[in-house]
């Protein structure tokens, strides 16, 4: 199993330059792009799982009848999504066209496979600075070096060793600093936060709790938020906080709030404006007719001026 190959592919598949593909009639079948598509990545990982880390070549597996199976074996096609033999050959041809794999060679000849034998493929190195280490996504693993700390002559202090003059330069401390190699720039201290993109770091500033997501959609009263959550739970049966985040990320939360507000009026008609006198000081009465009562609670006496259901009964 090519674990190191898999790690290299996972770290660099987004940098692969995929060429433009033109059919026999001169029409563009697919435009040039950077990065493997999801299906191409999966197929390449399946090949890497069945390849040797050192030679980067795919394995030949002996069958009980004495023959050998290459990467066209049935179980490998199942791991590639249950593809048919023809579909799997097309997938491998696509990877050959992209250039992430090539045929292995024996005696200057390609091992392309033919009747009675299997093809062997070699996975091309994707790392720009091989060999790929893969430590925390880095091509080269950071090294630990000892950096001596010296004290300045101007800011010297008494030393326990009488042979060292006051204020002289002396090594007082050694610090181990992680270093990483950058091609063309030599060694420099590795900043563990330098690879964090602004988009990722900004996620901490975005609302993530369910209450925060609902408030961002325009509801700010605690009782309204509670009622809205109960309604969503009954109508959509969310499985957890992830469901709420998905709805918010898609921009669908305001529409969901609007659907909930429609249920507050049984006929689906627009809610009449708040009269300004009922609600018992509950700010939710402005938008939620349930709280348009003398006490501001749902079990209070309905307001005859702006509670929709009461207006219909008295009309």
TrEMBL record:
Segments for region (Disordered): 152-171, 292-315
Basic and acidic residues composition bias: residue spans: 152-163
Protein name: Uncharacterized protein
Organism lineage: Bacteria, Bacillati, Actinomycetota, Actinomycetes, Frankiales
């Amino acid at each position: 199993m090519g674990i190191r190959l898999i790690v290299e592919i996972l770290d660099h598949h987004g940098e692969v330059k995929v060429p433009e593909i033109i059919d026999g009639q001169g029409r563009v079948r697919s435009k040039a792009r950077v990065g493997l598509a999801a299906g191409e990545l999966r197929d390449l990982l399946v090949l890497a799982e069945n390849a040797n880390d050192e030679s980067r070549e795919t394995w030949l597996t002996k069958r009980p009848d004495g023959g050998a199976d290459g990467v066209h074996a049935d179980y490998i096609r199942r791991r590639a999504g249950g593809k048919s033999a023809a579909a799997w050959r097309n997938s491998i041809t696509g990877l050959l066209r992209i250039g992430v794999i090539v045929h292995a060679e024996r005696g200057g000849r390609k091992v392309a496979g033919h009747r009675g034998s299997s093809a062997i493929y070699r996975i091309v190195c994707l790392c720009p600075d091989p060999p790929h280490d893969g430590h925390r996504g880095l091509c080269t693993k950071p090294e630990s070096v000892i950096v001596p700390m010296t004290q300045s002559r101007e800011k010297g202090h008494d030393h326990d060793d009488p042979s060292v003059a006051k204020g002289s330069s002396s090594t007082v401390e050694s610090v181990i600093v992680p270093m990483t190699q950058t091609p063309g720039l030599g060694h420099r201290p590795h900043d563990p936060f330098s690879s964090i993109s602004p988009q990722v770091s900004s996620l901490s500033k975005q609302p993530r709790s369910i209450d925060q997501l609902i408030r961002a959609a325009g509801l700010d009263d605690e009782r309204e938020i509670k009622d809205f959550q109960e309604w969503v739970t009954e109508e959509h049966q969310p499985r957890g906080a992830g469901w709420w985040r998905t709805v918010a990320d898609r921009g669908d939360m305001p529409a969901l709030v609007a659907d909930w507000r429609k249920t507050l009026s049984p006929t689906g008609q627009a809610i009449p404006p708040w009269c300004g006198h009922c609600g018992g000081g509950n700010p939710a009465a402005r938008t939620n007719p349930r709280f348009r009562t003398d006490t501001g609670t749902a079990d209070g006496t309905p307001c005859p001026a702006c509670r929709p259901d009461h207006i219909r009964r008295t009309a």
